[in-house]
Structure prediction request, 356 residues.
Amino acid sequence: MQNINFLLNDHQETALQLPANLEFGRIFTDHVFEMDYDEVNGWHNPTIRGNEPMLFSPATMVLHYGQAVFEGLKAYKTESGEIAIFRPDRHFRRLNNSARRLCIPEVDEEFMIEALKELIKVDKEWVPEKKGTSLYIRPFVYGSDPLLGVKPSKTYKLLIILSPVGAYYPEGFKPVKILAQDDYVRAVRKGLGDCKTPANYAASLLATQEAQKRGFTQVLWMDGVEQKYIEEVGTMNIFVRFKDEIATPKLTGSILPGITRATVLELLRDKGINVNERLISMQEVIEEYDKGNVLGIFGTGTAAVISSVGTLSYKDKTMTFKHDDPNDFELNLFNEILAIQYGLKPDNYGWLDYIK
Ligand SMILES: *Cc1c(COP(=O)(O)O)cnc(C)c1O
Prediction:
């Protein structure tokens, strides 16, 4: 493994007080990890340095053609006072899967986990303590050639930045209002939908903005070919809780293979619940809802973990779901995953990677 250079700041901020209404991704820690790629040296010069602005050419490729991939994962201060990262192996594996599709050179996954741990150790005072808070981790890679020719960049930069985040539900678990969208699509099969890449986010902005103007929180995306099957909700995977089955759209290529999705699938299967990955049409959801057979719908993702749907609208149909039962399924699932993440419940699956 390569040696990491440490160019640390003299004056470190420590033990910050997080404002209660902290905006997601607004505050960053003192240090970043940075590494370079070129054809001769491969990935080289891994460095942990102060979080200073960067200088780059206006022709930098990523700004023009979007050759970039990223990840989003979290570290938690656990009950015992240690810091644990949730499933970093899966996140760096997915970073490489996304990278291959965008002609970006892969990274050494084990080395990246070690580098991330070193970075978090340097900025460990920034990991917030309160239940619900965490350190959000954003690794990303981009093509850095200063060149306007359309081809894969020959040089790349990989960075990891860290952002302490407040509880996603400071006022308690809150159901969201969703608009199913068929005027726009997020992604198409064989396109980039199963990669974590900026283009998918750019594609989602207008539909989300329009939905928000109409009083909705998020968009439910349908498949890019017929707009018949449900695919994702906002930047989360989606689960439908039918009376006798919990179903989530199968990974057809246009859906991001969420790690929270995989976590939920594993937990539910091990409880003996009938869970299936399959195509789910909007038609089916509406028909089953009308028969009283849809008990709940929820999204899964690293940021919110579980987000339950209070209202789902599609054309002139509005479906509502109650979440006031103290034994609410989605709330219980949310609490169960949080308990594992904060070390309050045994980590039977080895999902927590502790920083030693
Ligand atoms: C990141 C992401 C998700 C959720 O993935 P997790 O690994 O659970 O955080 C779902 N959908 C999209 C489009 C995403 O970018």
